[in-house]
Design brief:
10 strands, alpha/beta, 3-hydroxyacyl-CoA dehydrogenase NAD-binding domain-containing protein, about 45% helix, Rossmann fold, binds 1,4-dihydronicotinamide adenine dinucleotide, N-(1-d-carboxylethyl)-l-norvaline Dehydrogenase, domain 2, two-stranded antiparallel ribbon, 12 helices, globular
Length: about 300
């Protein structure tokens, strides 16, 4: 802990205004994390309405803090004022850093990167929050690969401290250092990882989820599986982690890895797909996945 505290000190606060593209689960969480540290946030999605929905995620977290006595109404107002929803990339001229957090589709990310960079200042950094796609591949869409980097936050962003920083071959060290400082300024812990598919955490956790699903197909009771996960020191059981990531994203990533690398497709994901496509159970964000998440009261296994 002391080491972490020491590393958090001496932060260069050169990133004062960030742009976020994609105001879904991750984009709105990153907006909250930055705005609550006094950083100005410009939030964009495919429509202003969607961007507003992302901002209301922050509002909901903050209202809970007021109820718990952790924040005052005026503090909350100040944080919300730091988040501005925008409809065009023109506004991103003011940004020191832009983070894309759109859907995990290589083509959509590529298009967004190409579009936004025309509006960025030369010294502005551009980051992807991808959970699996190699940064070197995405950076081919960038005019300034030295300023292109991976910044991989985790869900729920307001609670998770770790952020992976992914340096591609052409990413400059200056860019890496500025991002390390940015992550520290959010009170989070940066780790620099290799530019592999899935980096570190997605590789480890996808194995945890896949093996957990196999255990269930082999007859292990879900409650036992979840308890065993927590007792062994993991933050959550594999099913709860899958719910937190989003079951739609979990399926998509598995399918994409299979297509890109030829790695074997696990039939356990057909079960997850059923939950998503037939029952609309996409995980915690929808209030239902492997667990039920009632508005009031504790979650429980479905
Ligand atoms: P999400 O589906 O909740 O949000 C994606 C948002 O992007 C949606 O609001 C969508 O309208 C928007 N979008 C799509 N195309 C767009 C475009 N062209 N311009 C602007 N906005 C656009 O997805 P989520 O879960 O927030 O994931 C976003 C990224 O973060 C993905 O790359 C994912 O792999 C990554 N990630 C997700 C984690 C998770 O636990 N869900 C954890 C870490 C990374």
């Amino acid at each position: 802990r002391q080491k972490i505290k020491a590393r958090r000190e001496g932060v260069d606060h050169s990133i004062q205004c960030i742009g976020i593209i994609g105001a879904g689960l991750m984009g709105s969480g990153i907006a909250y994390a930055a705005a609550s540290k006094g950083i100005r946030v410009l939030l964009k999605d495919i429509s202003l309405e969607k961007a507003h929905q992302g901002k209301s995620y922050t509002e909901r977290i903050l209202k809970k803090r007021i109820v718990k006595g952790e924040s005052t109404a005026s503090e909350v107002e100040g944080i919300l004022e730091n988040i501005q929803t925008v409809s065009t990339y023109e506004d991103f001229k003011a940004c020191d850093l832009v983070i894309e957090a759109v859907v995990e589709e290589r083509s959509v990310k590529g298009q967004v990167i190409q579009e936004v960079q025309q509006y960025l200042r030369k010294d502005a950094l551009l980051a992807s929050n991808t959970s699996t796609l190699p940064i070197a591949g995405l950076s081919t869409n960038s005019l300034q690969p030295k300023n292109f980097i991976g910044l991989h936050f985790f869900s729920p962003v307001e609670k998770m401290t770790l952020v992976e920083i992914i340096k591609a071959k052409e990413t400059s060290l200056e860019c890496v250092h500025r991002c390390i400082d940015f992550v520290k300024s959010l009170g989070k812990l940066p780790i620099v990882v290799r530019d592999n598919r899935g980096f570190y955490t997605s590789r480890v956790f996808s194995t945890y989820i896949t093996e957990g699903l196999y255990c269930i197909l082999e007859g292990v009771r879900p409650a036992l599986l979840e308890n065993a996960g927590e007792i062994s020191g993991m933050p959550m059981g594999p099913l709860e982690i899958a719910d937190a990531v989003g079951l739609d994203l979990v399926c998509h990533i598995h399918q994409q890895v299979h297509q890109d690398t030829g790695e074997e497709y696990s039939e356990v994901y057909d079960v997850v797909r059923l939950l998503v496509e037939d029952l609309d159970r996409t995980g915690k964000k929808a209030g239902k996945g492997f667990y039920e998440y009632p508005e009031e009261g504790e979650k429980y296994l479905w």
